[in-house]
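The instructor's notes for this session suggest beginning with a concrete chain rather than abstract definitions. Hand out the sequence below and ask the class to guess, before any prediction is shown, which regions might be ordered.
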Amino acid sequence: MITNSPTIFEFGYLCTDKSASQENGYTCISKPDFQYLELRCLSDDSSGFSKLMQPRFHDGHRLLQVKNYAGVIFVPSGKHIEVLPKTGNTKTPDADSYVDARKTLLCMLQALGEFRNIPLESANLETLKQPLLEIFITHFLERVNHVVKRGLRCDYVGQEENLLTKRGKLNVTKQIRHNSVQQQRFYCEFDEYLHDRPANRLLKSALLKVERYTNNNRNQKLLRELLFHFDSVPESLNPKLDFSCLHLDRGMIYYKPPLAWARLILDGFSPISMRGQALYYSRWRQSLKRSLLKN
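After discussion, reveal the predicted structure:
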């Protein structure tokens, strides 16, 4: 589980020197985590990480500056770095600044169709005092709980099994291969009505992932209850493939909000998840400008 994770505002600086951090307002992280992020910035790969964080050198200090990104960045120590919108940044940020910035980020998320159902009215002060990752997990679990209350949807899943009684269609080729000696058995193909479908597998995988991260007692309790309901659902072996196979009919619209959170969770809450989705951030910005103009 993740504890004592640092918080930084967008366009802020990360460093490893505590004295420099205190003097200049930089956010201090461990040297191994810093080196990992620095290497990612300098690596010429297709992830796009270098556009979201860049190395800097100032007054003899090696720094990393967070660019156009707000969200969560995981590091090898098991911690995560919480990156908040710059709108909440002040020269001397306090607890209220962090609360306001987290609420701003949730408002930005609401501009996206996938997250428009975020219940901001229930995001009370105590909730917003939690780390951003815990807030994300809270909203995800609440949406999955809504799915459980409405009912997990089943689907017909093709099965193959060597049975003592014939069921469905006999697979002649495998019958000869496996049962030439055990002629009392039948190698059958049949459909079974199961919870094993892409939407449920993705939610199960996301639940298992957040189990490693949440420290909130209420979230831990709800998570255990939800995993009990998903006990018969296997974990997704290929989330990318399952997302591409998703088919939500009219009776499964209530699955959309938790699946949006599941995609974010399974992508790692990280800048990498923004690759190929550059519109996300610009839409957040446009939404924020519109809300400011209205007020």
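Then share the key points. Residues 132-150 form the longest helix (19 residues). Strands lie at 7-9, 13-15, 27-28, 53-58, 61-66, 71-74, 80-84, 155-163, 169-170, 186-194.
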